[in-house]
Amino acid sequence: MSLQYIVEGGHRLTGTIEPSGNKNAALPIIAAALLTEHPVTLENVPRIRDTETLVELIRSVGASAEWRQRNTLFVHAKDIRSADLDPVLCARIRASILLAGPLLARCGEVMLPPPGGDVIGRRRLDTHFLAFEQLGATVVATDRRTAPRICATSPPSRTCRISPISWSRSAPASKA
To answer: Where are the beta strands (DSSP E) in 37-133?
Structure first.
């Protein structure tokens, strides 16, 4: 039995609504807050498991992150360090890969445990690493303890300009 909605017209609609925040939009924006040393206030951020986990991960590299209101997140990444990201936290969400670009840009290196999250088809990571290499980073897969990790380093004086692009397969490069 399928659900059916019937919308009857003839009546003018008025008013305003505030759409709820979207996880897939919020996660890259939270990660991008690490790109600046200035305070960032993000509004309409859904407070769900994935965003909470990413907030824990950005705190683990030295950023302060605080929920100021129900869906308002304050992030200040004045002093961040390239830390060994917690493999348990990274295994909870696929979005942990989004930290690679900002940490590489700010710290010059990142050691990234394999991201986790739901298994929804085939979602490759190599496009991220190929983009970093094209921007001048060195990417090496290592085997630390039993979990493989990705180590990326970038020349300290390397800067790059990226033209505005649409959010697509080329998105990983926009974060470096």
So the answer is: 40-42, 64-69, 72-76, 109-112
Q: In this structure, are strands 109-112 and 147-153 parallel, antiparallel, or unpaired?
A: antiparallel
Q: What is the pTM of this model?
A: 0.75
Catalytic residues: 118
Mean pLDDT per 10-residue section of the chain, whose length is 176 residues: 84 87 94 96 96 96 95 96 84 88 86 69 71 80 57 58 41 46
Distance CA 163, CA 106 (A): 19
Decide if domain 23-175 falls under CATH 3.90.850.10: no
Question: For 138-156, what is each residue's pLDDT tens digit?
Answer: 877 776 554 445 666 666 5
Contact 98, 174 (CB under 8 A): no
